[in-house]
Amino acid sequence: FYSNQIPATWHHRSSMLQDLERGKRTEIDSLTGYVSRQGRDHGIPTPVCDTLSDIIRFLEKNRTRLNCPDR
Fold first, then answer.
1. Cα(16)–Cα(28) distance, integer angstroms
2. Residue 35: which of 26, 48, 24, 25 has the closest Cα?
3. What is the pTM of this model?
4. E strands of 1-71, at which residues?
5. pLDDT at 3
6. Taking a C-beta distance cutoff of 8 angstroms, is the pair 23, 68 a contact?
7. Which of 41, 55, 67, 68 is the one with CA 20 to 30 A from 20?
8. pLDDT (0 to 100) of residue 43
9. Measured between alpha carbons, how far is 11 from 25 in angstroms, rounded to an integer?
10. Could you give the C-alpha distances from 70 to 6, 19, 49, 66, 67, in angstroms and in order?
């Protein structure tokens, strides 16, 4: 499985990574932001999702463009 899958997706760029590379807003609020909100609503801590959301929002807010070299 992995020997077939990894070469096929080696150069894949997720839409969120592409957005960050271009300095655009991402769909973070629809993904990990949603999980964080649901956790708060139900009293369940979601520290990893909270941190990921915070990092991505920081990059978006500061219009930090990621410069990721091609593999």
1. 8
2. 48
3. 0.69
4. none
5. 67
6. no
7. 41
8. 97
9. 22
10. 16, 16, 27, 12, 9
